[in-house]
């Protein structure tokens, strides 16, 4: 079973969309293996998004990701990474297919409601960033 990380981002938590997003996730067959509500420090956000360091949107992304609570969720399913990316839709909500999470709940390319791991390897790394094996 493949593992992937969903993060319900500060804009979606603030707008009370945690339940709406989790319903879409479980309805397409994901198992929620671990979950919590937390708030990232700037250092934690910079580490998590280290691959984007130096990009023009990096500092703004850190401001946004530390602006409120987030809900990281470790998910399992066959083809978990690809399926989560499908139900999230394109990074930019304006380009995301109708009915996808970012189309429904995102408001800009930055404030896009949710994050999903982009590869099976990153699924392992990113779930381990938030959860220890004892929590599964
Ligand atoms: P996410 O899937 O979490 O991965 C990196 C995040 O950076 C992305 O979602 C957006 O929140 C943000 N992001 C990506 N591209 C841009 C961009 N061009 N401008 C602003 N923010 C972006």
UniProtKB/TrEMBL annotation:
It comes from the Bacteria. The active site is at residue 115. One of its GO terms (biological process) is UTP biosynthetic process. InterPro entries: NDK-like_dom, NDK-like_dom_sf, Nucleoside_diP_kinase. SUPFAM superfamilies: Nucleoside diphosphate kinase, NDK. Keywords: ATP-binding, Kinase, Magnesium, Metal-binding, Nucleotide metabolism, Nucleotide-binding, Phosphoprotein, Transferase. Its EC number is 2.7.4.6. GO terms for molecular function: ATP binding; metal ion binding; nucleoside diphosphate kinase activity. It is an enzyme of class 2 (transferase). It holds the Pfam family NDK. This is nucleoside-diphosphate kinase. Its cofactor is Mg(2+). Belongs to the NDK family. Residues 1-135 form the Nucleoside diphosphate kinase-like domain. ATP binds at residues 9, 57, 85, 91, 102, 112. It comes from candidate division LCP-89 bacterium B3_LCP.
């Amino acid at each position: 079973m493949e593992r992937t990380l969903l993060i319900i981002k500060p804009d979606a938590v603030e707008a009370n969309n945690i339940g709406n997003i989790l319903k879409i996730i479980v309805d397409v067959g994901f198992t929620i293996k671990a979950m919590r509500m937390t708030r990232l420090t700037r250092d934690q956000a910079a580490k998590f998004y280290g691959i984007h360091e130096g990009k023009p949107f990096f500092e703004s992304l850190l401001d946004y990701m530390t602006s409120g609570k987030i809900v990281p969720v470790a998910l399992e399913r066959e083809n978990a990474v690809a399926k989560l990316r499908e139900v999230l839709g394109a990074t930019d909500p304006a380009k995301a297919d109708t009915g996808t999470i970012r189309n429904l709940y995102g408001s800009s390319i930055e404030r896009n409601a949710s994050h999903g791991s982009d590869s099976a390897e990153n699924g392992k790394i990113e779930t381990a960033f938030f959860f220890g094996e004892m929590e599964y």
